[in-house]
Amino acid sequence: MNELIAMFFRSIKYEKVELPQIQKNMTGKQMEKNKVYFKKITEDVRIPQCSKPGDAGADARIMGFKEIKKEGDDKQLIEIDAESYTLKPLERVACPLGFATAIPQGYYFKVVPRSGLALWEGLTILNTPGTIDAGYRNEWMAIVANISNKEVTLHKGERICQIILGKLHEYEVIEVDELPSSERGLGGFGSTGKK
């Protein structure tokens, strides 16, 4: 499955499709299941690509910065006109990724941190995994948080997160009075120990 995902990401860089070729009805019934359409919002954005064959995730890059303001019920994302942004410890910033997508019905994307940035810089994607549903057509953003004890400077064009295609599994919710027993039972939160 990962190889299949990597294959279609690699094919994106060779193909530019005009709107008439894309089905106007994006309900998924007519949309091809093996293609995800990317629209550039920022002209110089690089559409996410897998770095190596077999990679599950494709790297997405910072194309801007938006400061997060919230006072009571008033919520705003204020665009910052800068080539870089310095995150203080425990601060977060919204980073537009410069593209929008049309994802086939039955699929979604996860937006996840890059392991090197998490390990060496203390950066994470705050709502990880971020979920991009098939019907979402607006510009993608990553909510980047500095969970380290030092300032970290972000730059436009840097790879900040990975996007991973997932298959949606439909399920039925059934309310019951009792659950069947299992070997694990009620154990959780470290109940199996460390060793």
> Averaged pLDDT, please?
86
Q: Based on the structure given, which CATH architecture of the domain at 55-169 is correct?
A: Distorted Sandwich
Q: Indicate the proportion of strand residues.
A: 25-35%
Q: What is the CA–CA distance across the termini?
A: 33 Å
Poorly predicted segments: none
Query: What would CATH call the class of the domain at 55-169?
Result: Mainly Beta
Describe the structure in your own words.
- The protein is mainly β.
- It has a domain at 55-169: Deoxyuridine 5'-Triphosphate Nucleotidohydrolase, Chain A.
- The chain contains two helices and 13 strands.
- The protein has helices at residues 2-12, 115-121; strands at residues 37-40, 58-61, 65-71, 74-80, 84-87, 92-96, 99-102, 107-113, 123-125, 130-132, 141-146, 152-155, 159-167.
- The strands form five sheets. A four-stranded antiparallel sheet has the order 2-13-8-10. The chain has a three-stranded antiparallel sheet with strand order 6-11-9.
- It is globular.
- 22% of the residues are buried.
